[in-house]
Amino acid sequence: MPEGHTIHRHARILRERFAGRPVAVASPQGRFAAGAAALDGRTVEATEAHGKHLLVRFSADAAGADPATVPYLHIHLGLYGKWTLGEGEPPEPRGALRLRLVNDEHWADLRGPIACEVLDPDGRGLVLAKLGPDPLRPDADPDAAYARIHRSRAPLGLLLMQQDVVSGIGNVYRAEILFRHGLDPAMPGLLLPPETWQELWADLVTLMRAGVRSGRIVTTRPEHRSRRTGPVRREDAHYVYRRHGQPCRVCGTSVELREAAGRKLYWCPTDQAP
DNA sequence: GCTAAATGTTGAT
DNA sequence: TCAACCTTTAGCT
């Protein structure tokens, strides 16, 4: 599920498997042929995740080359994008395979991304300049997000999804974080008290870090699950996301669903009353 | 086994 | 407001 935690996880895994070594880059589908050719054989120097964006820095043309020419691979998975990873010999390419990375030990296949392109450092800067603070980044400044929220009449449920306000949150974390803090998704941003934002941010950091570790989104507390111990069942993982019509885990009220800005928004009308 | 919807964003209309 | 991206999964039959 590509919300921010997934991308940070990918950045870490790709770094572990590919950084510091030359990599063969190919585009079996052909749609990224020019980019692949430009990167093929270079060394992977670093990987970074900012919100839902993944950037891979490759080696420059030569030692002492103009730093402005250092190439970055920029990937955004969008809704369908997916990495498939493996060891040893990569399988025969099948289907629409946009990008394949291969070194002596590992391979990584990328399908269906909404963005897969080569950027120079300026291009990377333009991508990052459009992003609000990312709860998964230690350098993130939550006050910058609050400044945006606090001067906006837009509903909180909308603001949390805007990547230029906060980056990395998707539809699942949006719904769940609002529930966990008892916030009405329709509350205008400017009515959010600063203390509540502090709490919400701290909770996002905790939840999303757990998401990076486990590779899934679990937001329920043990006392609100059908089983308190052991692995969290899929149907126990969320409070409201995709639980439309089912009883709220805390108060029993039927969970509501509404379409907002083209996305489904789930909330409990009792625990998240205006 | 099939269909619809899904974690997201962009660019065209 | 809608199509595109084009895979995976939930929920049917």
What does this structure look like?
The protein is an alpha+beta fold. The protein contains seven helices and ten strands. The chain has helices spanning 4-18, 33-39, 121-129, 142-150, 156-159, 171-180, 194-214; strands spanning 24-26, 44-50, 53-58, 72-76, 82-87, 99-102, 106-111, 115-119, 256-260, 263-267. The strands form three sheets. It has a four-stranded antiparallel β-sheet. Strand 6 (99-102) and strand 7 (106-111) form a beta hairpin. Helix 1 packs across helix 7 (194-214). The protein is globular, with a radius of gyration of 21 Å. The model has no long low-confidence stretch (mean pLDDT 93). It binds a DNA duplex (13 and 13 nucleotides) through residues 1-3, 6, 52, 76-82, 95-96, 111-115, 161, 163, 170-173, 217, 242, 262-264.
